[in-house]
Design goal:
single chain, Jelly Rolls, 10-stranded antiparallel sheet, 10 helices, isomerase
Length: about 400
């Protein structure tokens, strides 16, 4: 069964004013359009073709067509016009404990100082759709960070000294907590000034340019210096980035398809006017330095690619359909399809729906799978397919 889905873009301040509109082939509204949620999350459920929210449709009709009463994943179209907050997400155990604690404390779930809005974890995967998608993900190896800080002259020396501990994880965790504590503002301002005015022509030009860009939006924000400790990633179309629990990250600019466990739990670490709970962030943070957690698509069949992750909650595939090659897709569990380029017709039995860029639909389990034909690209989000981490 094919069920058309729509939703109104969320107007977060960091959203792009034109990326989603250009994808959909319409005139921009002039307002930020940050995310289109395509799922049943109660915070902003998608709407089915008959006008019901998807959570209501699943509860009322899902069982009769083999669909679950609740999806384990949330698919989004994300368009960043300016940097999102630096953030990390809790593990499942941490989310359950934090949610229960705030429920006992009677904090309203929509309160600005609420941290845990549900009891679920939020591993997430993003795949670039725009020509470039800029992000920060994970903490850079300390040897690289020391070389970057050396370019800042005397201003970089105090921070570099703080990162000299033999245990890199302790060193990074202590430094991030200090930067966000409010006790380091003088050092933060000096570092930002040094980074903005530093000479270019080095191996870290892109990182220094990013700091200058972020500082324009968030002058004097300690998160600007936290960002200086993170890996800068530039994704090309089709390239992916997977963020498990505890990993610091921030999306900076570009359009992407994002898939995550169905949760809205965020622990922020700068670049935002919203609530930052430094102590709680440090309890969920994984401060291990290393390369960015990139994900390469693996070919699953002719024209069909899968993005492997350890998340048991979701699986993401990409179908590249051409005029001379249909793509067959197995659908053993409920899936949501999203078109991003061209025109792709989804065929399920006698039903057929055309997916143009930005259009989406839910597909209930199909024993014979579905066929995609036409010319374009569609992403397929569903439950499972990952390898559960030990």
């Amino acid at each position: 069964m094919l069920v058309s889905l729509t939703n109104t873009p969320r107007d977060y301040a960091w959203g792009s004013t034109d990326l989603i509109a250009r994808l959909e082939g319409r005139e921009p509204t002039g307002r930020p359009e940050a995310e289109v949620w395509l799922g049943d999350h109660p915070g902003n459920p998608a709407v089915t073709g008959d006008g019901r929210t998807l959570d209501a449709w699943l509860a009322e009709d899902g069982a009769s067509v083999g669909a679950p009463a609740k999806l384990s994943f949330l698919l989004k179209l994300l368009a960043a016009g300016s940097p999102l907050s630096i953030q990390a997400h809790p593990s499942k155990t941490q989310a359950e404990a934090g949610f229960a604690r705030e429920e006992r404390e009677g904090i309203p779930r929509d309160a600005g100082h609420r941290t845990y809005r549900d009891d679920n974890h939020k591993p997430e995967l993003i795949v670039a759709v725009s020509d470039e998608f800029h992000a920060l993900a994970g903490l850079r190896p300390l040897a690289d960070t020391h070389r970057l800080l050396a370019l800042l002259g005397p201003a970089g020396a105090p921070l570099s000294a703080r990162l000299e501990d033999a245990d890199a994880e302790i060193s990074l965790a202590d430094t991030i907590a200090w930067l966000l504590s409010g006790d380091a503002q003088e050092e933060v301002d000096a570092l930002i000034h040094a980074a903005v005015t530093a000479a270019r022509g080095t191996e870290f030009d892109a990182e220094l340019d990013l700091v200058a860009h972020v500082a324009e939006a968030y002058p004097s924000d300690p998160g600007v210096i936290v960002a200086m400790l993170m890996n800068l990633v530039v994704l090309a179309p089709g390239e992916g980035l997977y963020v498990p629990a505890g990993v610091l990250h921030a999306y900076v600019s570009g359009l992407g398809v994002e898939l995550m466990a169905a949760s809205d739990n965020v622990l922020r670490g700068g670049l935002t006017p919203k609530h930052i709970d430094v102590d709680e962030l440090m309890t969920v943070l994984t401060p291990a330095p290393g390369p960015a957690p990139l994900v390469s698509a693996e070919e699953e069949g002719a024209g069909l690619w899968r993005y492997p992750t350890p998340a048991p909650d979701f699986s993401l595939r990409r179908a590249d359909v051409t005029a001379d090659r249909d793509v067959s897709v197995a659908v053993p569990e409920t899936a949501i399809l999203l078109g991003t380029t061209g025109s792709v017709t989804v065929q399920s039995g006698t039903e057929a729906v055309e997916l143009t860029p930005g259009r989406s639909l839910l597909v209930t389990p199909e024993a014979d799978g579905i066929a995609l034909r036409g010319s374009g690209t569609a992403f397929i989000a569903s439950t499972g397919g990952g390898v559960v981490a030990p």
